[in-house]
């Protein structure tokens, strides 16, 4: 029996207003049989959220016998061809295989037997981590209630969960996330955190590369030097972005390098420009930021080392609520963060200069992914104990 979808699908631009029992001959449909949404479930109160890569993303309620669960739907647009449907089925298989960790967002069910096709994910509330951080600022909605519980200790707790999710993706599936930032994480009740935004990880699992158009969506201020120069991306490139995420957490959602215009990021980063220590940031946290953002990727820590450091900091952290003087101006944030900003000339010049000095070659169309499974000692042999000793010396 066909799944019942109690919403006007056409109004969401998900496809035709009635179900089409179209045969989707994509490999893997059989493997998804146990993940197909049962016929006695219905989707209600479906609301459009945004347009995604494959089609609209919506929120709704998944109901059975009067009990409702909040969910998020990723849909395939109704005009998709058979090849696009095949890729969508492969995306479902990817989530089935990969998303088995408490700190990675989970797919609950899918519908791949006919159009409209969609994937159903658990809804996490409050939701987007960046928006949550903004809500903690003075003058923002919900400020008085939420600010009481978000402190430096909270930063470490949140960061540890992000690092755990990323470590799982790398160690169990050899996946590089590719877009580590507060906007790619979800936060739930009790400060539980889940890594989301796995589109780039899916693409690299399929092809081993990131299309130029997808890479261009990642703001320059979150990109490691090797990424700006179009050299192979490794898990240590994600570690650089994790260092930027730490900055976002302690500043309650400020864009990194606020003193720099996006057009300055490439030359400054390649000249080993450092993140400035933000207000309210303790010495241990700032040292970890700098450690994650070392210019040479081999000098950056691996996730087990990061997790061990964060665990050691949690019970020593300040529990005083963090504060920020004013709410975020969205337009100003986008300008400072460089969302949508591209500087291709600078990237090309930087790459040409690096190739001349180091003999590298590049692919103008793709950024290549080189996952790695290095553990605590790191590629340069520097262990966690040596780093902790350095941090202790700086803080005493």
TrEMBL record:
Please provide one cellular component term from the Gene Ontology annotations of this protein: plasma membrane
The principal location of this protein is membrane
| InterPro entries membership | Kinase-like_dom_sf, Prot_kinase_dom, RTK, Ser-Thr/Tyr_kinase_cat_dom
Q: Which GO terms describe its molecular function?
A: ATP binding; transmembrane receptor protein tyrosine kinase activity
Keyword annotations: ATP-binding, Nucleotide-binding
Gene3D superfamilies under this entry? Phosphorylase Kinase, domain 1 (3.30.200.20), Transferase(Phosphotransferase) domain 1 (1.10.510.10)
Q: Which cellular compartments is it found in?
A: Endomembrane system
Instruction: Write down the Pfam families for this protein, in alphabetical order.
Output: PK_Tyr_Ser-Thr (PF07714)
Q: Quick one: where's region Disordered?
A: 354-379
**What is the protein named?**
Protein kinase domain-containing protein
């Amino acid at each position: 029996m066909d799944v019942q979808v109690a919403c006007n699908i056409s109004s969401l631009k998900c496809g035709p207003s009635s179900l089409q029992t179209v045969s989707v001959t994509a490999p893997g449909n059989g493997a998804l049989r146990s993940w197909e949404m049962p016929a006695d479930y219905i989707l209600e109160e479906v609301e459009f959220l945004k347009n995604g890569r494959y089609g609209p993303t919506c929120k709704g309620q998944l109901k059975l016998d009067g009990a409702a669960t909040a969910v998020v739907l990723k849909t395939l647009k109704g005009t998709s061809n058979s090849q696009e449907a095949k890729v969508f089925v492969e995306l479902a298989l990817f989530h089935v295989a990969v998303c088995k960790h408490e700190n990675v967002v989970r797919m609950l069910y899918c519908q791949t037997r006919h159009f409209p096709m969609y994937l159903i994910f658990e809804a996490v509330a409050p939701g987007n981590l960046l928006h949550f951080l903004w809500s903690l600022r003075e003058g923002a909605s919900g400020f008085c209630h939420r600010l009481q519980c978000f402190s430096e200790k909270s930063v470490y707790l949140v960061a540890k969960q992000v690092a755990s999710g990323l470590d799982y993706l790398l160690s169990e599936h050899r996946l590089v996330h590719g877009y580590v930032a507060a906007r790619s994480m979800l936060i739930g009740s009790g400060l539980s955190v889940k890594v989301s935004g796995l589109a780039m990880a899916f693409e690299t699992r399929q092809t081993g590369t990131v299309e130029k158009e997808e890479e261009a969506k990642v703001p320059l201020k979150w990109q490691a030097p090797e990424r700006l120069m179009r050299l192979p991306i490794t898990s240590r490139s994600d570690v650089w972005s994790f260092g930027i995420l730490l900055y976002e957490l302690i500043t309650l959602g400020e864009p990194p390098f606020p003193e720099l215009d996006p057009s300055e990021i490439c030359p400054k980063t390649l000249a080993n420009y450092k993140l400035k220590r933000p207000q309210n940031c303790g010495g241990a946290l700032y040292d970890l930021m700098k450690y994650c953002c070392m210019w040479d990727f081999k000098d950056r820590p691996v996730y087990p080392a990061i997790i061990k450091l964060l665990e050691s900091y949690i019970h020593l952290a300040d529990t005083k609520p963090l504060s920020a003087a004013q709410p975020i101006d969205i337009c100003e944030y986008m300008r400072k963060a460089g969302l949508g900003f591209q500087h291709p000339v600078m990237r090309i010049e930087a790459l040409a200069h690096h190739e001349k000095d180091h003999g590298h070659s590049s692919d103008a169309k793709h950024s290549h992914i080189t996952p790695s499974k290095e553990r605590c000692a790191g590629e340069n042999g520097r262990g966690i104990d040596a780093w902790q000793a350095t941090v202790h010396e700086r803080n005493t």
